[in-house]
Write the C-alpha cells for this entry.
Amino acid sequence: RTHSIAVLPGDGIGPEVTAAALAVLDAAQERFGFTTERTDVPLGADHYLSTGELLPDATVEELRGHDAILFGAIGSPTVTPGILERGIILALRRQMEQAINLRPVRLYDGVPTPIAGLTPERCDMVIVRENTEGAYVAQGSTVHAGTSAQVAVQESVNTWYAVERAVDFAFRLASVRRKKLTLCHKTNVLVEAGKLWTRAMEEVGARYPDVETDYVHVDAMCMHLPVNPERFDVVVTDNLFGDIVTDLGAVVQGGLGVAASGNLNIAGTGTSMFEPIHGSAPDIAGRGWANPAGACLSLSMMLGHLGEGEAAAAVEAAAAAVVAQLPALAGAEMGATTEELGRRIADLVRDG
Amino acid sequence: RTHSIAVLPGDGIGPEVTAAALAVLDAAQERFGFTTERTDVPLGADHYLSTGELLPDATVEELRGHDAILFGAIGSPTVTPGILERGIILALRRQMEQAINLRPVRLYDGVPTPIAGLTPERCDMVIVRENTEGAYVAQGSTVHAGTSAQVAVQESVNTWYAVERAVDFAFRLASVRRKKLTLCHKTNVLVEAGKLWTRAMEEVGARYPDVETDYVHVDAMCMHLPVNPERFDVVVTDNLFGDIVTDLGAVVQGGLGVAASGNLNIAGTGTSMFEPIHGSAPDIAGRGWANPAGACLSLSMMLGHLGEGEAAAAVEAAAAAVVAQLPALAGAEMGATTEELGRRIADLVRDG
Ligand SMILES: CC(C)[C@H](C(=O)O)[C@@H](O)C(=O)O
Ligand SMILES: CC(C)[C@H](C(=O)O)[C@@H](O)C(=O)O
C-alpha cells in the first residue's frame, strides 16, 4: 500500500515538529508495511516574503493530487497578523472544502492536566467544529472609518448545506462512540443561526435514533468543560465557538503539546489536512524545545484517515507514552530535544 | 444618607439569594449608618406567564427612578428558552444603557478553585465586557427556512460610540489598578470589528500613557486564563467574547457561587444593575441549597457604586470569609441553608 502525502512544514517550530513526525512515519511504515510518497510544499512566511505568494492556485492543485496533507504551523512576527492565517490556513480550509475541524480532547494517562483531580477516564471527547463558514466567512464592512461615527458590521453566515453536513458527521461519530451528541451554541442570543443548528440536530437526529442529544450554551460549556468533561462525548459547534472551546479543551487535556486536529474533506472533493494545534512559536524556534507530540498525534489522525488504523493506534500510543514521561510540555526543561523525542516515539512505534 | 433601590428577585433561586443579600444589606446599613428605600419589582417567568408582560415601559420608567437595581436571577423551564433572557435581561441592559458588564475575577483566600496550584495572589483581574451591541444586537435573518437552501445570517454591529466608551472605561479602571489593559478579540478573523477595537485601544490609550496595553486572541485567552491568570489585570472585550470568557473566569475563581457582576450605566442616563452570574437554577429552587455569596458580592458591587465604599468592602470580606468555610459551593452538602449563610455574612458585617 502506498499513500501520497503533501508535507507543509510552514514556519517557526513547524519544520522541527514535522521532521520529528516524519521520522515517526518512517518507523510506522517499516513496522506496518506501507509506503508513502512525500512532496514538500513551501508555504508560509518565508515563501510569502520572498515571492509575495500566499496560496497560489497551482499549489492548491498540487495539494489536491495527494491523499493527505501533513501540516506543521504557520505564522511569523515578520508578517502583519492575519495575513498568513487568512491567506493560507483559512483559504486552504475553504478551497479544499475541509468541512470539519475534528479535535479529540483526550487526557492521556500520565499527562499532567492543570485541572485538579481530573482523571483520564473522565476526559475523552471529540469536538466537531464546522470549518468553512459562520463568522469565518471573513466578510464585514466598515463605514465612517476613523470618525466618531465608525461602525463595523461583521456577518456570520450559516447554511443548511454546511451545518447539516457537520451535524451529520458528528452524529455518525457519536454512533460509534458513547452515543451522545451535544450541540454547543448560543441559541438564546444568536436566534437565527440557532434555529438552523437546532433544526439540523432534530432532522439529522431522526436518522440516528440511538444517539442521545443534548444542548449547552457556549458560555456554560466553558464552565462544564474543565470540571465536568465526562459530560461530553461528541460536541458539535460552529466555527467561532469551535475555535474557542477547542483551545479550552487543549488546556484540559494538558496543553498545546498534546493537541492535534484534522481538517477533513468528507465529500472526496479535496484533500484533508492534519495539524497540531500549537502555532509556529517563533520565540522557541530553532532551539529544539518544541514538543513534537501534537504533530505526532496529528500524524496518527492522518494515518487513521488513510486507512492505516493499526499504525494510527501505534503512533498515538507511542506519542502519549513519551509525553507522559516529560517534565514539561515544551521548553528547555523538557529534558530532550524535539528530534530526540521524535526518535523515542519512532522507536516505540518500531518496536511495538 | 439614603439610596433608593429597586429589588428584582426574579425566578428560581433568585428570590432566595436576594433575600439573603437583603439581610446583609440591613446589617451594612446598621453598621455604616445609611438607609435604603426598596421597591420590589416583579419581573420574570411568573409575571410573564400570568400577565404576558416581559418588561413593560412603566417598569422601565419605575426602575429609572432608582439609584440602583439589585437583581436575582431570571429563567424558567416553563418558558421557551430565550424569551425571558432577551425580553428582560438583554432588554434591560439595552434600555437602561448599561454600557459595561463588569466582572471581577478574583480568587478569594480559602475558596477552592479547580485549577491545580492556583493561589489568590495570582488571580485578580477585572473583565470589562461591552454590554449593548456586537452579536447581541440580536438581529439576523433567515431565508428558505425548512428547506435545504436555508441560510441564517447573524450580524455583529460594532460602533465607535459603544466601543470607545467601553475601552475608555477599561483604561480608567486599569489606571487605578495594576495599569495593564488587555484587549481580547479575534482580530485576525473578525477583521472589520477588529480594526474598530484596535483603533479604540490606540486612540483612547493615548490619553492613558501610564497604562500598558496588550492583545490576546479569544481562543488563546481561554488557554491563558485558567493557567496564567496573573497575566491579566483589566481585560476589555466585546459582548459575545465577554459572555464566554467571564464564565470561564467564574470557573477559575471557584465557580458560580462566588461570581458577581455589575451592569453599569456610566452616562447617568439610566440605572445600573447588579447580579450574581449564576442563573435561576430551577432544579434546586426552594430547597435552601443556593449559595448566596454571588448575590452578596453583587450587593457589595452595588454598594461601591452607591458610594458606600466601606460597606462594600465589609460585605465583600464577609461573603468571601463565609464561602471559604463551605465544603461545597451549592447543594445539600453546603452544610447550611441559603438563609443561614446570609445570616452569617450579615453577622460578620454587623460585628466588623
Ligand atoms: C490561525 C487561526 C485563523 C485559526 C482559527 O481561528 O481557526 C486557529 O486559531 C485554529 O483554531 O486553527
Ligand atoms: C442570559 C444570557 C442572555 C446572558 C448573556 O448571554 O449575556 C448571560 O449568559 C450573562 O452572561 O449574563
Summary: The first strand of chain A starts at residue 2 and ends at 10. The pocket of 3-isopropylmalic acid (ligand 2) is lined by residues A 188-189, 219; B 85, 89-90, 243 (CB under 6 Å). Residues 114-142+155-252 of chain A form a domain with the Isopropylmalate Dehydrogenase fold (CATH 3.40.718.10). The two ends of chain A are 20 Å apart (CA to CA).
